[in-house]
Design brief:
The chain is mainly α. It has a domain at about 5-115. Helix content is about 55%, strand content about 0%.
Amino acid sequence: MPSCSSIDRATLLAWMREYVATGSAGRASRRAKRRLLKPFQELYEELNPGHTILESLRNSVFLQDWLFHVRLLSAATVRGRLGCLKGFTRWLFDQGRVDDNVLAYVDVSRAAEHREIPAIVLQDNLQREIAGFEATLLNYSGPQILDNMLSSIRDIYGQHGEVQERTPT
């Protein structure tokens, strides 16, 4: 997977078009997505010439700056725009096109109402590893769940970890 800094504007715009075309959304909804996503990239390019918004997916600095730029808009408008960007970045993450998605940790309604986003910085590839671990946990079922979970924990932390086995009561 290419790093976010190596993804050029043309690729990003192609991904935006692909995202807008996906799903069961109607024609009006696709137009709304396109109309809502483009301003994020334009503002990011204005503030960071030669770069794409994908470079901002590791921390919340750009989102905090963006909230300042839209401070005069209604909470509903901010919610809609931020929700659209969150959907796009979630889609990119789910497609495996980016390793990080800071928006996964942002409450869109709270950000729109209070006009603040917490300072968030993601560690290298940790979010992708957590998503893989969560998917592994979902595969466990039945009476072996405790053994399977302990086995996964041992795999992650190695045999040297101090994991003590307990039987359910």
